[in-house]
C-alpha cells in the first residue's frame, strides 16, 4: 500500500508499528525460510513526538547491523481512515490519485494533505463494484520517510493494520472471524474465508473488557461487544450472502481469557477459542495481541 517497493538489502527486517500514542519497533532476521524475532519494543508517545521516540528506540538497538535493512511502517487505526466507496470510473492506475479528490465529504483530511490508496475484497454482492479507500495524512507520513532515509533503512511498505493482519491467517475451509484488540483501545472484527479477507470492521464505542471481573462477565458485561459482533456476523451472512461463521478466534487480553471465550461463545452460539500467536514469535510477544499488526509484516519471510 502507498506504493513503496525497494529491494531488500539486509537479512534483518525492521517494522515500525505506530499509533498516535505509541511507537513499536520490531526486528526480525530471516534465513532459509525461517523467521526469528529479535526485537519487540515499544515506547509511549504523543502525536508531536513520534519521530523523536522512533529515534530513541532505534538507538537502543544500534548494536544490530541494520544498515540498508528493509523497513515497513504499519499505521494503527488512529493514523488513517478507510471507507467503502464505489469504484471510480477511471483507469485502474488512476484510481488512487482520483480518490484524493472524491473523498472530501467522507474523510476528515483535506485533498492537499491526503495520501490515498485502496484495496478490494475478493468477492462482492451481485451488482456491486466497491473498493476500500484508505487515506493517511501526508504531513504524518513525510517525516517517517525522511527518518528512514536518514537512518539508512530501505523503505519497502507503508501499510495499515487491517491489511497486515490477514497475513497471519491461513485461509479457512469455512468462514472464521477474528476479533482483535488494538493498540488504540478499539476492537477490530475481521472475517476470513477460503478466498482470504472478506470483511473488516472497527468496533468503535465498545468499552474495554480487560477490567471486567469474572462475576461481571457472567452477569452480562460482554453483551455490548457480543451485540456488535452479531451485527458483523449478520451483515456477512445476510447482506454478503456468505456461509455461516463456524469459528471465532478471540485476540483480546484478559486475566481469565477462558471466561471471555465461554461467554462470547454462549452469546453468539458459535464455537470460540483464544487466538494463538505465531510459534516463531512466542519468545518476544507482547502478550496482549496489540503487536500482531507489526508481527504480521514478517509472516512473508517464512515463505
Your description of this structure?
The protein is of the alpha/beta class and 303 residues long. The protein folds into 3 domains: 12-76 and 139-165 and 292-302, Nucleotidyltransferase, domain 5; 81-137; 167-280, Nucleotidyltransferase, domain 5 (2-Layer Sandwich), CATH 3.30.420. Helix content is 25%, strand content 30%. It is built from 8 helices and 13 strands. The strands form 3 sheets. Strands 3-2-1-4-8 form a 5-stranded mixed beta sheet. A 5-stranded mixed beta sheet has the order 11-10-9-12-13, with helices on one face. A hairpin with a 2-residue loop joins strand 2 (22-31) and strand 3 (34-44). The chain is globular. The model has no long low-confidence stretch (mean pLDDT 93).
Keywords:
alpha/beta, Nucleotidyltransferase, domain 5, 303 residues, five-stranded mixed beta sheet, globular
Furnish the topology, listing elements before pairings.
Blueprint lengths: L11 E8 L2 E10 L2 E11 L5 H10 L10 E6 L5 E6 L8 H8 L11 E6 L10 E8 H13 L3 E7 H4 L11 E6 L5 E7 L2 E8 L10 H5 L4 H17 L7 E5 L5 H12 L2 E4 L17 H6 L6
Parallel strand pairs: 1-4, 4-8, 9-12, 12-13
Antiparallel strand pairs: 1-2, 2-3, 5-7, 6-7, 9-10, 10-11
Question: TL;DR of this structure?
Answer:
Helix content is 25%, strand content 30%. The protein has helices spanning 50-59, 95-102, 138-150, 161-164, 214-218, 223-239, 257-268, 292-297, and strands at residues 12-19, 22-31, 34-44, 70-75, 81-86, 114-119, 130-137, 154-160, 176-181, 187-193, 196-203, 247-251, 271-274. Strands 3-2-1-4-8 form a five-stranded mixed sheet. It has a five-stranded mixed sheet with strand order 11-10-9-12-13, covered by helices on one side. Strands 5-7-6 form a three-stranded antiparallel sheet.
Amino acid at each position: 500500500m502507498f506504493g513503496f517497493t525497494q529491494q531488500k538489502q539486509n537479512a534483518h527486517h525492521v517494522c515500525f508499528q505506530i499509533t498516535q500514542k505509541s511507537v513499536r519497533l520490531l526486528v526480525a532476521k530471516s534465513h532459509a525460510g525461517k523467521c526469528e524475532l529479535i526485537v519487540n519494543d515499544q515506547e509511549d508517545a504523543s502525536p508531536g513526538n513520534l519521530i523523536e521516540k522512533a529515534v530513541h528506540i532505534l538507538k537502543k538497538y544500534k548494536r544490530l547491523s541494520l544498515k540498508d535493512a528493509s523497513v515497513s511502517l504499519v499505521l494503527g487505526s488512529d493514523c488513517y481512515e478507510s471507507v467503502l466507496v464505489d469504484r471510480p470510473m477511471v483507469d485502474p492506475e488512476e484510481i488512487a490519485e482520483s480518490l484524493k479528490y472524491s473523498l472530501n465529504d467522507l474523510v476528515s483530511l483535506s485533498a492537499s494533505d491526503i495520501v490515498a490508496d485502496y484495496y478490494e475484497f475478493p468477492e462482492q454482492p451481485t451488482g456491486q463494484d466497491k473498493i476500500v479507500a484508505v487515506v493517511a495524512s501526508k504531513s504524518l507520513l513525510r517525516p517517517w520517510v525522511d527518518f528512514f532515509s536518514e537512518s539508512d533503512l530501505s523503505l519497502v511498505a507503508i501499510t495499515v493494520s487491517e491489511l497486515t493482519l490477514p497475513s497471519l491467517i491461513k485461509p479457512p475451509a469455512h468462514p472464521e472471524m477474528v476479533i482483535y484488540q488494538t493498540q488504540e483501545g478499539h476492537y477490530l472484527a475481521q472475517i476470513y474465508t477460503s478466498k482470504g479477507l472478506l470483511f473488516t470492521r472497527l468496533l468503535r464505542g465498545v468499552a474495554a473488557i480487560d477490567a471486567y471481573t469474572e462475576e461481571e462477565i457472567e452477569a452480562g458485561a460482554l453483551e455490548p461487544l457480543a451485540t456488535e459482533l452479531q451485527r458483523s456476523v449478520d451483515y456477512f451472512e445476510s447482506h454478503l450472502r456468505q456461509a455461516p461463521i463456524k469459528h471465532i478466534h478471540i485476540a483480546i487480553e484478559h486475566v481469565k481469557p477462558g471466561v471471555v471465550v465461554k461467554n462470547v461463545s454462549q452469546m453468539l452460539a458459535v464455537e470460540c477459542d483464544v487466538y494463538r500467536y505465531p510459534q516463531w514469535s512466542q519468545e518476544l510477544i507482547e502478550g496482549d495481541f496489540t503487536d500482531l499488526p507489526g508481527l504480521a509484516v514478517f509472516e512473508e519471510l517464512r515463505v
